[in-house]
Amino acid sequence: MTGNNFTEVTFLILSGFANHPETDSQLNTPMYFFLRNLAFIDIFHSSAVTTKALGNFQSKQKTISFIGCFQMCFVVGLVCSECFLLGSMAYGLCVAICNPLLCSVITSQKVCNCLGAMPYTVGFTSSLMSICVISSLAFGDTSINHLFCDTTALLALSCVDTFSTEVEIFVLAGFTLLSSLFIIIITYIVNVSAILKIKSVSGRQKTFSTCASQLMGVTIFYGSLVFTYLQPDNTPSLTQAQVASVFYTAVIPMLNPLIYILRNKYVKSALLRAIQRRHSA
């Protein structure tokens, strides 16, 4: 509108947190770089599954296109990526515990970028190979007894012998899970050994608490994945696979902020300071 001291408004400015663009220096560490990637993965793969599941609860037509079903294998790629990202996080934690003074040198930004890109590369390569294997099958049924188009559910729909396919999926899943789990186990053994050498009792308790909370999240995540995928014959356990899939697609993403973020004193103090600055502005 023009005239009468009015001007036409063509855009608005979203100031948001622009008045406080600074980031707490304690959060500019390799561990929080990995946590940002973990949050990214959790948000995408949990929303991709839960939104479709909730939509099916409210809709009478519970369908998904064949192409859309294989697009849901994007979730598998993210889950595989999270496996190796947890390995990168375990390595970062190991460096922070064993060489705290050299942590910034050993895990430089370039190293962090490599450790951050590697999980996505390996994870989506493994997922793409799984898609290629499953897409070669012939399907006789159209009813998927699952929350999303998981490999276990798609194998159950096949009207041909899936033994060789199951073996290939088993090998791919085994490589993804066991290789990343091996990295985590080795790093946590080194962590425990380093913790036991700490002379201060309070220091040992503080460091062990950090390791124990992360180890709990890793145990739940890997436990559900191993139960779902590392079985040569997946068809009889399809109902159990549904329950396990709820853990790694919905429950784990909700627990991760509690395990990695809200129990962290640096995050809580940074959040408190940001709120205080916001109120005082």
UniProtKB/TrEMBL annotation:
Its main location: membrane. Keywords: Cell membrane, G-protein coupled receptor, Membrane, Receptor, Transducer, Transmembrane, Transmembrane helix. Gene3D superfamilies: Rhodopsin 7-helix transmembrane proteins. Residues 9-260 form the G-protein coupled receptors family 1 profile domain. The chain crosses the membrane at residues 63-79, 85-106, 118-139, 169-196, 208-230, 242-262. It is a multi-pass membrane protein. The keyword Cell membrane applies. Pfam families: 7tm_4 (PF13853). It is found in: Cell membrane. GO terms for molecular function: G protein-coupled receptor activity; olfactory receptor activity. GO terms for cellular component: plasma membrane. InterPro entries: GPCR_Rhodpsn_7TM, Olfact_rcpt. Belongs to the G-protein coupled receptor 1 family. Putative odorant or sperm cell receptor. This is G-protein coupled receptors family 1 profile domain-containing protein. It comes from Sus scrofa.
